[in-house]
Design goal:
CATH topology of chain A: Helix Hairpins
Strand content of chain A: under 5%
GO biological process, one term (chain A): ATP synthesis coupled electron transport
Largest sheet of chain B: none
Membrane topology (chain A): Multi-pass membrane protein
Shape of chain B: globular
Largest interface: A-B, 42 and 40 residues
Subcellular location (chain A): Cell membrane; Membrane
Largest sheet of chain A: none
Number of domains of chain B: 1
Distance between the termini of chain A: 56 Å
Structural class of chain A: mainly alpha
Subunit structure (chain A): NDH-1 is composed of 14 different subunits. Subunits NuoA, H, J, K, L, M, N constitute the membrane sector of the complex.
Helix content of chain B: over 70%
Radius of gyration of chain A: 18 Å
Number of strands of chain A: 0
Oligomer: heterodimer
Number of helices of chain B: 19
Order of helices and strands of chain A: HHHH
Shape of chain A: elongated
GO molecular function (chain A): NADH dehydrogenase (quinone) (non-electrogenic) activity; quinone binding
CATH class of chain A: Mainly Alpha
Helix content of chain A: over 70%
């Protein structure tokens, strides 16, 4: 019964609102990646993009009564965690060599 | 599917070998294990494949062919790496293990039957590659390459995922057949979010295969990563990316080709021009190969734009020809770089006089990349262009031929440097492993060029 009430609570908001909210969060993430210069902040913006996807998947999944979408969310969470582990290691490595995590120092190779 | 299991277990065995200091056994064990995986894949040929693991994977002839090419290319690159990784660090087992982990991702990418597995495969491959690109921990170029690759890779994954989500929202399924059935049964009232999803997936996958205008990370990442890792990224990874691309579009979206084909056509033409014209200006051989890999991504897109029954085969032949030729080019680059210490094209001056064998195989490779007849590259281009002509895409073929002519200019610059420029230099020592890989690859390139029926009707 608990799951039924959660599903009802999610369905109390129209599906279009979820799509709109996720699109807005996703766009904020994209703008963050394109405009910010700090590697950690860029990284957080990427996480924002992934989480907007998670939100939308859950909403679709509830509206269709199909568990596959929620299972996909677990895959995204697991792989995002793996990516964080590798990504933070790379950022730490850069910081040790340059004492900075500003991506403007990454200009030895020409763009 | 035993291939996938063997390639997954092998790196764990290698890590144990590294733990017990059995450095000498690493390469033989890797190669034997890969050959067993190769055999397991070939055994399933024409096996009338059905989706397995609850419809997650489909190991059909298409997957087997691309798995086999990926495994063979990886074996060749690993043989070139003998004595190469030792110079970078003392933890060699990890290199082999991470390369094999990314190969696991590639096998998943070419045999998925559900968008979940497409995502999982791409991520397994990419996360391993982020580590490999930055494996020279104290080298600034390698660091920069790893961070750029990581940020761009994660960014493009976001687009891919949003696209997958929108397609799920419209069709209610992650399964390739389920999506195809949705498209067929709703041919007049497809939800607009489905189209948005297709566009976002195109953006995500174009990032991964390095097609313009999403190519800008490629030259930097390819230049900064260690040469053999670059060889791996620009051959195996690119071929697998296109296999995944083609599988999705031919299995699920083929009936709405009128919608996405113009988009991909524009991307193809931009990719060809940007790749070829920028490659003309490069002084560094490695960076030139990076831009040439962008232009080859453009040629590979032809098969997807002109989607038809022969597309899978065209991508297969082209990817094989391109992978083998690139392996020769990168192998030669590693050898010359060890002697001269730079990636510059001038480093190849006068190579033919002292090293006739090396100069010859590199010439074969350059001719194949340029698409000169009697090499595998020509056969690849032939299948690509004839597929496009069958669908009356004349403008694309004309643009591609113009680009093929431009590309001859920069590929021949290397040949001219080797044969007609003189420079004081001593002989480059070529280890036996290199001789085998370079000779084998040149032989295959010519064999496919002279007798294309060897691989041209496999899929």
């Amino acid at each position: 019964m608990q799951s039924q009430t959660v599903a009802n609570a999610i369905q109390a908001v129209p599906l279009n609102h979820y799509i709109l909210l996720s699109a807005i969060i996703f766009s904020i993430g994209v703008m963050g990646v394109l405009l910010r210069r700090n590697a950690i902040v860029i990284f957080m913006s990427v996480e924002l993009m992934l989480n907007s996807v998670n939100l939308l998947l859950t909403a679709f999944s509830v509206y269709r009564g199909d568990a596959a979408g929620q299972v996909f969310v677990f895959f995204i969470m697991a792989l995002a965690a793996a990516e964080v582990a590798v990504g933070l290691a790379i950022i730490v490595m850069i910081y040790r060599n340059t004492n900075s995590i500003d991506i403007n120092v990454l200009n030895r190779l020409k763009w | 599917m035993n291939t996938l299991i063997i390639i997954s277990v092998l790196p764990i065995v290698l890590l144990y070998l590294g733990l017990y200091k059995a450095q000498k056994a690493l390469l033989p064990v890797t190669i034997v294990g890969m050959l067993v995986a190769l055999g397991a894949a070939v055994m399933q040929w024409n096996d009338n494949a059905q989706p397995i693991y609850h419809g997650m994977m489909l190991f059909n002839n298409f997957s087997i062919a691309f798995s086999v090419v990926s495994i063979i290319s990886t074996i060749l690159i690993l043989m070139l790496s003998k004595g190469y990784f030792e110079k970078i660090s003392s933890h060699i087992a990890e290199y082999y293990a991470i390369i094999l982990f990314s190969l696991v991702g590639i096998v998943v990418m070419v045999s998925y039957h559900n968008l979940t597995m497409l995502f999982v495969g791409i991520e397994i491959m990419s996360v391993s590659l982020y580590i490999l690109a930055g494996i020279r921990k104290n080298d600034f170029a390698s660091n920069e390459s790893a961070l750029k690759y990581f940020l761009m890779g994660a960014f493009s994954t976001g687009f891919l995922l949003f696209g997958i989500t929108l397609i799920y929202g419209a069709s209610g399924s992650f399964d390739l057949d389920g999506i195809r059935d949705y498209v067929l049964s709703h041919s007049h009232n497809i939800d607009p979010i489905f189209y948005t999803g297709v566009l976002l997936i195109i953006v995500g996958l174009c990032f991964k295969v390095g097609a313009a205008p999403f190519h800008f990370w490629t030259p930097d990442v390819y230049e900064g990563a260690p040469s053999l890792i670059t060889a791996y990224m620009s051959t195996v990874v690119k071929a697998a990316g296109f296999a995944a691309f083609l599988r999705l579009f031919s299995a699920s979206f083929s009936s709405i080709a009128a919608f996405w084909s113009p988009v991909l056509m524009v991307i193809t033409i931009i990719t060809l021009f940007i790749g070829n014209i920028t490659a003309l200006y490069q002084q560094s051989f490695k960076r030139m190969l990076a831009f040439s890999s962008i232009s080859h991504a453009g040629y590979l897109m032809f098969a997807i734009v002109a989607l038809g029954a022969a597309s899978a085969n065209a991508v297969f032949v082209y990817a094989t020809a391109y992978s083998i030729a690139s392996i020769i080019a990168f192998g030669a680059l590693v050898l010359v770089r060890q002697q001269t210490g730079s990636d510059n094209v001038d480093g190849f001056n006068g190579l033919a006089r002292k090293n006739p064998f090396l100069a010859f195989v590199l010439t074969v490779s350059m001719l194949s990349l340029a698409g000169i007849p009697l090499t595998a590259g020509f056969i690849g281009k032939f299948y690509m262009f004839s597929g496009a002509l069958l669908q009356y895409k004349y403008i694309m073929v004309i643009v591609a031929v113009v680009n093929a002519i431009i590309s001859i200019f920069y590929y021949f610059r290397v040949i001219i440097a080797m044969y007609f420029r003189s420079a004081e230099r001593s002989e480059v020592l070529i280890p036996a492993y290199y001789k085998f890989v370079l000779g084998f690859s040149a032989l295959v390139t010519i064999a496919i060029g002279v007798y294309p029926a060897l691989i041209s009707s496999l899929i």
